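Entry 14. Ran structure prediction on the chain below.
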Amino acid sequence: MDLFLTLVSGVAWTVVYVEAIRVGLRDRTYAMPVAALALNFAWESTYAVNEFLGGVSAQGVVNVVWAVADLVIVYTYLRFGRAELPELVTRPLFAAWSVLVFGSAFAVQWLFLAHFGTHDATRYSAFLQNLLMSGLFIALYAARRGPRGQSLVIAVAKWLGTLAPTILFGVIEDAPFILGLGILCSVFDLAYTGLLLHGRRATAAAPPERTLRSLPDPSR
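Output, C-alpha cells:
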C-alpha cells in the first residue's frame, strides 16, 4: 500500500507539472504561483539529493522527475513572469526578486531539515507548502480574473497528488498534524476546482457575441 500511494502521488504530481508546462507555454505565462514553485523546486532538489545519498528509492526517482519538470516551469516564470508585474519592475529588479524568492525557498527547506531531521522535515515542509500552494492557486485565479494559465487537470491532479500522501502519512502512519494539513489542502483544492468548473460553466452559458458585421446597417 505504501508503494502504491507513493506512485499515485508521483504520477498525479507529474501530471500537474506536465500540464503546467503545457498551459504556461500555450498562454505565455507561468501556471504555478511563484512562491509555491520556488518551494517545490527547493524541496524536490534537496530531497532528491538526500534520498540518493542513502541509495536508490522510488521517492528519490520521483523527486528527480519532479525537479526536472519544475525546471521547465521555472523557465516559463522567468520567460513570461515580468509581464505579469507593473512596468516599474525593471528587468534587474525582477531578476533580483526572483533570486530572493528562490534563495529563500532553499533556505526554508534547509532550516526544516536542520531543525526536524530528514523524516519529519520532508513531511512537515511538504504539507505546509502544499497548503500554501492550495491557497495561492485561488489567489492566482482572483488576480488574473479567470482561468488564464490554469486548468482543471492541474486542480484535480494536485488534489489527488496530495490526498495520496495524506492517507499514507496521516492515516496509515497515524500522524494527526499531517492528517489535519492534508484535509485543509483538500478543502482548498476542491474549492479551487469548483472555481474552475464555475468559470467553465459561466463561459459556456454566456450568449455568443454578435459581431458588427451581423448587425443591420441603418444606412440601407
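The two ends are 75 Å apart (CA to CA). Will compare against last week's run tomorrow.
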